[in-house]
Specification:
This protein is α/β, with parallel strands linked by helices. About 35% of the residues lie in helices and about 20% in strands. It is globular and about 50 Å long. The two termini are about 30 Å apart.
């Protein structure tokens, strides 16, 4: 197994779709604990990580640190730093921090994960690490259960892709950090603007991204109805 493996928890978003202006969605509670705490706990119990880096909105850094101290007894390997203006800039902040504090080489692996996906499993994290080591990059996905309909003008169907080749992306997404950073640094401003996630950085440049099997329970908590779904999943565990 490679040395220098870092868990990267992406908590930089403000969660505006939740309709809760008081606090970002990652700090809302399910099962009597903040969502972000459930997520961090999944990484803390995995022994492969050298450090776990949590990227938080600047205004919420001290609150995030307080939560970690309150809920996670052994938190010495957890670091909280500011996120960036976009998802990928947040990841680059994490890579920059790793390089400045621990060094960065070709074998440094990052496992990036949404702070609002608290049901990530040990198996998913383990397979992400293995795939990143073996292939250089991977994405956690599930087969699309519904037919995917494309509409270029948002009014009429432009195509209906073959569902058997379609997958829904989840996280973790894991990478050799130096390669990801170097490719991202070479993108134009226009290319950076169309990126919705880190895997697209590599796909855009013809790099292979391996698939890791996710799970339908690995939901992203985005809307109020997702809180109820999360409570139901938690109740069944």
């Amino acid at each position: 197994m490679a040395n220098n493996i870092f868990g990267i928890i992406l908590a930089g978003g403000q969660g505006t779709r939740m309709g809760n202006a008081e606090r970002p969605k990652q700090f809302m509670e399910i099962g009597r604990k903040p969502i972000i705490v459930h997520t961090i706990e999944k990484f803390v119990i995995h022994s492969a990580f050298d450090r776990i880096i949590v990227l938080s909105p600047k205004a919420w850094i001290s609150h995030t640190k307080d939560l970690i101290r309150k809920y996670i007894p052994d938190h010495s390997d957890i670091i909280v730093i500011p996120g960036g203006s976009t998802r990928n800039e947040t990841i680059m902040n994490a890579i920059r921090y790793i390089e400045e504090n621990f060094g960065l080489d070709d074998d440094t692996i990052i496992v990036t994960h949404d702070s609002v996906r608290p049901f990530v499993s040990h198996r998913m994290i383990e397979e992400n690490i293995q795939a990143a080591v073996e292939y250089g990059a991977c994405d956690t996905v599930i087969p699309a259960s519904d037919t995917i309909v494309e509409s270029q003008d948002h009014k009429f169907i432009s195509s209906i892709p073959d569902r058997s080749a379609m997958y829904q992306g989840q996280t973790p997404q894991s990478f050799r950090a130096k390669k990801l950073r170097d490719i991202y640094a070479g993108l134009s401003s226009a290319e950076k603007e169309i990126l919705t996630d880190a895997c697209k950085i590599l796909v855009l440049k013809g790099e292979k991204v391996h698939l890791v099997e996710g799970d339908v329970t690995n939901i992203k908590i985005t809307y109020p109805s997702d809180i109820r779904m999360a409570e139901a999943i938690m109740g069944g565990k």
